[in-house]
Structures are given as C-alpha cells and as structure tokens.
Task: structure prediction
Amino acid sequence: PSGSLLDYYLKYEWPLHDVLWQMERHGALLDQGALEKSYPTYEAELDRLSKEIARVSGKVINLRSPQQVYKLFYSSGQDGSWADDKGFPPHKMTSGGESGNAQPSVDEEVLEIRAAKGCQTSSLLLEHREIDKRLKDLKQYITLADDNGRLHTTFNQHTASTGRISSSHPNLQN
Result:
C-alpha cells in the first residue's frame, strides 16, 4: 500500500542506516592539540569555583564527594532527622543503596531547587559540576581516539523518542 510504514522505512530510514554506518566506521577527527590546550582553562575555572564555594560556604570540602556535599547543606539531629541551616528538611533523600542508610540528596534537581531559592553555594556547585563533566568528557574523547586521531561512536537511529539521532560509546551530545 502507498504511504505505508514500510514505504517510509525503505525510502528514508534504511538509506540513513548506511550513512550512519559509514560515519561510525570513518569516525570524527579530533583536534587533540586544541582539546588538550583547553584543559588549563577548565582546570582554572574549577579551581576558581572551588575557592568561591569555600568562601561562600565557609568550608573546604571535596566537591566530588556526595557525602561531604550533603553535609555542607544539612546536619542530622539527635533523632536522626536531617535539616538545613534554616531548619527545613531535605527536598528528597537517597535510596540508601546496599546499606539502606538514606541520606539527603544533592543531585542536580535538588541543587536547582536550592539555587532557585537563592542558595549561592548550590548555583556555584551546579556550575562546578558542569565544567567538571566537560573536562572529563574531553579527556575521555582523547583517550578513546584511534591512532589516526579519530573518535568512533555508535549512532542510534531509533532510540530517541523525538526521532532525533543520538550517540553512545561515547556519547557525543554532552
């Protein structure tokens, strides 16, 4: 039948499959020198944000440690309940993992809520996490590049509900 899903698939989806396969095989050429030159800029910004968080919060902590970060915002009462410096309970708790010991969550959603309420430390921490992730991604891309400086990813044609193409191993959309 004309206009069927099979017609659409054969006309649009199948030819694109071959193009994506060729792109995966060919890889994306990285300018490794330019990427490596950007490291100091990202590292300097992480250092600046770490110092600013310490200045604003009055505490120096490991910003990559969820346990230290949640203790930056919350303290535990004698009854085991958690509260922030204004006496409010956490927005949500972690599942507690294998130990079952739930703790205040400091994930992106919680930090965005706190930042929207004017918490400068939360805003700075969100920025720190974003830059830290970018730097890790850049380092990962260089590590995964082949001997010719090309990065090979997997393009996913049918996984995103919006119909767009996504990538994985590594994800190039960050």
Notes: Strands lie at 28-29, 74-76, 82-84, 150-151, 154-156, 166-168. The chain has five helices and six strands. The helical segments are 5-26, 32-57, 66-73, 108-116, 120-144. The mean pLDDT is 90.
